[in-house]
Amino acid sequence: MDIGVVELSRLQFAATALFHFLFVPLTLGLSVIVAIMETVYVMTDRPIWRQMTKFWGMLFGINFALGVATGVTMEFQFGMNWAYYSHYVGDIFGAPLAIEGLMAFFLEATFVGLWFFGWDRLTRRQHLVVGWLVAIGSNFSALWILIANGWMQFPVGAQFNPITMRMELVSFFDVVFNPVAQAKFVHTVSAGYVTASAFVLGVSAWYLLKGRHIDLARRSIAVASAFGLASALSVVVLGDESGYDAGANQKMKMAAIEAMWHTEPAPAPFTVIGWPNQETRETKWALHIPYVMGLIGTRSLTEEITGIYELEQQAEARVRNGISAYDLLMQIQDQRATGVDPALLERFRAVDADLGHAMLLKAYVDDPRQATEEQIKAAAADTIPTVWPIFWAFRIMVGVGMVLIAGMAYFFWRASFKRMSFPRWSLQAALVMLPLPWIAAEMGWIVAEYGRQPWTVAGVLPTAMSVSHLSVAEVALTLAGFCVIYTALFVVEMGLMVKYIRKGPHEDIEVTRDWMTRHRNLLSSGLTEVQK
């Protein structure tokens, strides 16, 4: 198989996924923040909260539209660039995507329209319900996408059928409640909430620096800082859960995150910084914090985290065992026309868990049974991802997360206890902080997806086998097309966002005047009653 097609297909999907994920976190978070603001408006009847809801809702709508446009194309790529993957695991992977489209996306898209055009057609409470349904739909979309992705990271609830040569679903419950998928969902959604909070905080800070829309900006900072602080703290807690799941179910990824070349005595230390060298298999200039990685990965002081070298040895044993599985599979295929011997199927079931490791040999030899010792060792070495991108992406993500927690805590303190007074330097810092959640989110996806290599489905299907039968020129052409179109969409997105932020919220003067009149009348009647 032409490795150029594999690399280009991976690059294309990575580029489109990372670009799409520029919009997803903001959509997840803004949908909830807007619903919170509208809830306050319905409870208080204050026009300023209606104004805030409409303004941030407009920015949500722009981002939502671009997120949909960039997300739909990703699903088409499974048929375009990853045809064998779609054939091999479509029974399992397709189910969450279908549910996401039928239930979550339709719910979200339908009620987005009602939300924007229903202000004068629905009662306040009806419109509020619509707003919360938009937020729920957004989060449900993330849930089913991450269930599908979580299955790729840790495939459960499925079994390989040697007759049809495909993976088949055996437990939908196990797929839905996959621990890796659930941990990824709550961690990703919380990161989206932080992203939206930083966005609202940054834009509001810009208004205060310009001396515009002061009332709206201060209240928006109060909401964003409280919501963002709670979300940032939950990201840490839920990230710890993801680390524990990786330690239990994705041992090679955990070892790569830490650049742990050899198994160390428990509890393992956390490497704050260092320089991983994959050729010599050592980390130079490493600075360690004792016990921390052991607690994250195992939640104990006595369990070890297996090192890369030892995991490679285990992979070599699985490759050898997988060759036996492949041999039995070929015998089963030979008997398909006349009927498969049940004893042969039973023997295959005893070793089929390692069949995917034998498939790694397809990169070196057409028939894994003909593999040499050198090829077996090379296939085992392929199970080690490139360490330095994962190592650094994880540390950038964690470092940015700590900065965001500190920033959110500061603004929450100023909003809650300093009467919403913010020094000029802090408002400038909020603008600098605005892009940080996106950086952390993209780094997180690099850790999650790059750390899964060389597998499309961990331990089941190698990436090199998953691609469609395309030429390098065909994939390169579509990659260039995506880059051009997505760049144009990004320019449109940024142009619209900047335009409406500069324009600012629409002030409903008549609504505000009516509210102030009613409010004065209530105060006057209350004062009269007290005087009586």
TrEMBL record:
GO terms for biological process: aerobic electron transport chain. It comes from the Bacteria. Its main location: membrane. It is found in: Cell inner membrane. It is a multi-pass membrane protein. The lineage of its organism: Bacteria, Pseudomonadati, Pseudomonadota, Alphaproteobacteria, Rhodobacterales. The chain crosses the membrane at residues 17-43, 55-72, 92-117, 129-147, 185-209, 221-239, 392-413, 425-448, 468-492. It comes from Paracoccus shanxieyensis. The keyword Ion transport does not apply. Belongs to the cytochrome ubiquinol oxidase subunit 1 family. This is Cytochrome bd-I ubiquinol oxidase subunit CydA. GO terms for molecular function: electron transfer activity; heme binding; metal ion binding; oxidoreductase activity, acting on diphenols and related substances as donors, oxygen as acceptor.
